[in-house]
Amino acid sequence: MSSQGAYGYAVARIRAMEHRLLDSGVLQRMTDAEDFASILKILGETSYSSALTSQTNGSDFDKVLEADLHSIYEEVRTFVPDKVIVDIMRLQYDFHNVKVLLKSMFNVRTGGKKRWDLLTSLGSYPLDDIIMNVESEEYRLLPFGLNTLIPRCITVWEQSRDVLEVERLIDKRMFEVMLEKAHELDMPGIISWIRTRTDGENIRTLLRLKRFNFDASKALPFLHEGGTIDITMLSSLISEPFETWGRAIEFSDFGKIIGSIDASGGYSDLILSLERVLDDCYMEKIAAGRYSPSAPENIPAYLWAKEMEIKNIRVITVSKRNKGDKDHLRRLMRHGYV
Questions:
Q1: How many structural domains comprise the chain?
Q2: Which residues lie closer than 8 Å to 64 by C-beta, 6 or more apart?
Q3: Which of these, 96, 181, 258, 287, could form a disulfide with 246 (CB 3.0-4.6 Å)?
């Protein structure tokens, strides 16, 4: 079977799976629901019905959502010709697990406890294997260059106790691996999407650093190479009002959308608004491939749509538990396919 034919079949499978995604009407009903029990009832009428049992507390419900997303990743991986496409989407969870294991290690060394409850099964590398390799210090068996990265992170922490620097090193490697794997695929649409996500993460990081009054020279090491926006230029924006950032990067995918954000509130609201528009921007970028019945971009587009659906469900449930304002909740909701 040719590559085009193989992706024609894969995209046909994806089209069939799209019907499981929650439509806007279901999400609206969940937004209008009075309480968490009502949300569970609505979800019980959807593709989530088989995963839902009697879970009523937040922890159990999160496990249901994680299990559902995990099953989707595993299912898609069975019919996609290039498994790396799916693995790229899961890398964020692999590196999340590395952070959790290292922070737990540091916590134990200072008299605290492990927090393995924060680990996730959503990564591309088996969770049990990464736990065993880190616990036994068999780092040479780890993928993604972690065999040298983890010892380096441990050394940094032992010398400085700087967890922020450890996180920076891990995030830097994650974006490097994402771009490396995208280039291995040699698929321009997916390479472009990874570069866009790198830009978006740099902008998000910059706003978070601005909140803590970082200057440009200190901010630069936290920005990742591989995007389309020069990081030196981007880091210089940290001293400028957020309202001007859109004009400064109007040549990019982000200029217009950042310029549309209401910056009149506090940093917490601003960061939440930025994260939402970035997620929507990633969706719009990768969903352009949906017009082709054999484009590989259809695979990450569907998986990102599923990720955003899970995120929307979590946003709704947290808002309901906190008796949040419905209008504010709607402003936090991510878009599905465009």
A1: 1
A2: 48, 51, 52, 55
A3: 258
